[in-house]
Design brief:
The chain is an alpha+beta fold. Helices cover 35% and strands 14% of the residues. Helix 3 packs across helix 5. The longest helix is centred in the last third of the chain and has 19 residues. It is an enzyme of class 2 (transferase).
């Protein structure tokens, strides 16, 4: 049970699991929005960035609140039909970090809206975009606390050196996501 910050009644939290090429992705949320997306802990990834097989949804698929359904549809498209993510609704988020006005929130929204599929930005570029060019370190902090990985694409934020940098799901996962996007983008370009 997660109680909402406004002193209202606690959310009725539901979970759905998506079996992705990266492993089990857990999506938690309620009627108001997605609370968080949990990436698999392990860093054993499929060789090559070709997504394998269909995307099976395991438990929790019956009575899903709309934001969870949208989130699942968005993630499924991300792995299997990336061209369609641009036309899908981004689910509502219901996480305190994305409701309070803060630089972290500003950074996450900027990343969501401005850094498209197959693109990458440096921490400093993202700080610039979010309105504070000197806050590259704070951007790193915002990436670490991102409750919606993949949808809010913190994997697209890399070091200015071109090194992929850290990632909550581990560096191999970050590199997998980046090469998945690069491959898909090249396919779409042809």
């Amino acid at each position: 049970q997660v109680s909402s910050k406004q002193g209202g009644s606690p959310c009725e939290e539901k979970q759905v699991v998506l079996l992705s090429p990266l492993g089990r992705i857990e999506i938690w949320g309620c009627e108001k929005g997605v609370h968080e997306i949990k990436l698999p802990k392990r860093s054993l990834l499929p060789a090559g960035a070709e997504p394998s097989g269909g995307c099976e949804v395991s438990e929790g698929a019956e009575e899903l609140p709309e934001p969870l359904r949208q989130c699942r549809a968005w993630l499924r498209a991300y792995f299997w039909e990336p061209a369609s993510t641009g036309t899908l609704p981004v689910p509502a988020f219901h996480h305190p970090l994305l409701q309070r006005d803060s630089f972290t929130r500003q950074v996450l929204w900027t990343l969501l809206n401005d850094v498209k599929f197959g693109e990458a930005v440096s921490y400093k570029q993202l700080a610039d975009l979010a309105g504070n060019s000197r806050a590259a370190r704070a951007v790193g902090g915002a990436m670490r606390s991102n409750p919606m990985p993949i949808i809010i694409p913190c994997h697209r934020v890399i070091r200015s050196s071109g090194d992929s940098g850290n990632y909550g799901g581990g560096q191999p996962m970050k590199e997998w996501l980046l090469s998945h996007e690069k491959l898909q983008k090249e396919k779409l370009a042809h």
